[in-house]
Amino acid sequence: MTEQSSLNGQVAVVTGAADGIGWAIAQHLAKAGSQVALLDLNGDQARERATQLGSVHLGIACNVTSEADVQAAVSEVLSRCGCIDTLVNNAGIGEQAGATLIQDADRFDRVVSVHLRGTFLMCRAVATAMLERRSGAIVNLGSIAGQAGIPGRNAYGAAKAGIAAMTRSMAAEWARSGVRVNCVAPGYVLTSMVSSLIEQGAIDAAGVARRTPMGRMALPEEIASAVEFLASARASFITGVVLPVDGGWLALGAPESVLGDSQD
User: Per-domain residue ranges for the chain?
Assistant: First the structure.
């Protein structure tokens, strides 16, 4: 665990915070001393999670694809907390996995809208306040799917690649105004949803472990730790990076057989 003072007294906004990686990030930032506003499409669950963290934390219903929702949520956080020091864009949805020729265009648009449009709208709304203070850190959630080709995952991969590109452009645009923008790109993460998919046979956990040089999936807390680092002053001269947190997945440039036996 990082030092308690790393984000002590700061205000953080986390989207998609009611479950999975977003919930792990919210918990991590709260333990590091931040007052956390948990935004989620499921407002009741976001408020319940905020209560679990403690009375100073907020739970707010927000559809990140809606410009009105985003503006209202950001305005509420600023009104109640006074500022926003950290924004973590985690909100996302699953996609249709299958051959390109049978994919549905409307479902493609929906995935891109939640991931890419949602990240854009949140960045724009929060950066307005950060730029006025000349201070702030934004961490976007990318994916290995945005850095390498995964057959049948066109919408998700395109959205995450777009987030990486947008991270770099915003970082360059806002760097001299005191706002840093970075991206964490997880590999396979053992969330409750992924565990359920493994049980259903929808994900080959053993295959993922064999393909990953470290021989396992990430834990949500490991993604949260990377996010906290990029949000903290310890990363004060880091901006515009896409940080893979993937157990070496992207680094591997040889057949997985060279890795030997994975330790499950």
Answer: 4-187+231-247
d(CA 209, CA 262): 6
How far from chain centre, in Å, is Cα 8?
A: 21
Across 1-10, 137-146, 254-263, least confident range: 1-10
List CB contacts of 28: < 8 A, sequence separation 6 or more: 221, 224, 225, 227, 228
- pLDDT tens string 97-126: 789 999 999 999 999 999 999 999 999 999
Residue 28 CB neighbour total at 10 angstroms: 26
Catalytic residues: 156
What's the CA gap between 225 and 32, in Å, rounded? 10
Written as one letter, the residue type at 56 is V
Which residues are CB-neighbours of 98 under 8 A, at least 6 positions away?
152
Distance from C-alpha of 51 to C-alpha of 38, rounded to nearest angstrom: 10
Distance between CA atoms of 184 and 207, rounded to whole angstroms?
Answer: 23
* CA-to-CA separations, 163 to 21, 81, 112, 166, in angstroms, rounded: 17, 27, 10, 5
Q: What are phi and psi of 36, to 5 degrees?
A: -110, 130
* pTM strictly above 0.70: yes
Tokens of 102: 């049978």
E runs forming strands in the chain: 11-15, 35-40, 58-61, 86-89, 136-141, 179-186, 242-245
The CATH fold assigned to 4-187+231-247 is: Rossmann fold (3.40.50)
Phi, psi of 179 (to 5 degrees): -110, 125
- Pairwise CA distance, residues 141 & 214, whole Å: 21
Which amino acid, one-letter code, is at 129?
A
